[in-house]
Amino acid sequence: MEELFRVGVISNTHGIRGEVKVYPTTDNVRRFDDLKEVILDTGKEQLNLHVTSVKYFKNMVILKFKEFDNINDIIPYKGMDLLVTRENAIPLEDGEYYIADIIGSKVITDEDKILGTLTDVLQTGANDVYVVKTKDGKEVLLPSIEECILDRDIENKIVKVHIMKGLLD
């Protein structure tokens, strides 16, 4: 299971005192209100940062970190991911799961045939769409609705599906 979850991407600096504009990649943008620590993934290393202030502007979150007090210190981190540990992630309700935990799941049909591997989840306005890569390299898009997604076994990484008429055409 994934131990780190991306909550945002540093899009730009904000002011001269080391604040950053963050594009949130979480379902609940207000989750930043209670966020005390994040991990900055530089691609080469992961830096633990402490959040000292949170503001909201349009569709962005403006964060200030204890570790940075100057615009020049934060500029090199534009475009980099901000992560949280599983323990700092938003708690799940019964029946909920983290998308990261089902990525890589084996997808089988209700006829016990292997369809492929779940490689991505697209979040649309109406419902999520599971992207399944078949063994011959094709992509199949399955709507995450009760008629199509029958069961999600998160621990064993198996998703059982019903192929509705027309989905494989």
TrEMBL record:
PANTHER family linked to this entry: RIBOSOME MATURATION FACTOR RIMM
Any Gene Ontology biological process: ribosomal small subunit biogenesis
GO CC term, one of those recorded: cytoplasm
Top-level taxon in the UniProt lineage: Bacteria
Cell compartments where the protein resides: Cytoplasm
Alphabetical list of NCBIfam families matching this protein: 16S_RimM
Pfam families (alphabetical): PRC_RimM, RimM
Quaternary data: Binds ribosomal protein uS19.
Gene Ontology terms, MF aspect: ribosome binding
Protein known as: Ribosome maturation factor RimM
The RimM N-terminal domain, residue ranges: 7-87
Description of its domains: The PRC barrel domain binds ribosomal protein uS19.
Keywords: Chaperone, Cytoplasm, Ribosome biogenesis, rRNA processing
Stated family: Belongs to the RimM family.
TM helices/strands, residue ranges: none
Sequence ranges assigned to domain Ribosome maturation factor RimM PRC barrel in this UniProt record: 101-166
Record function comment: An accessory protein needed during the final step in the assembly of 30S ribosomal subunit, possibly for assembly of the head region. Essential for efficient processing of 16S rRNA. May be needed both before and after RbfA during the maturation of 16S rRNA. It has affinity for free ribosomal 30S subunits but not for 70S ribosomes.
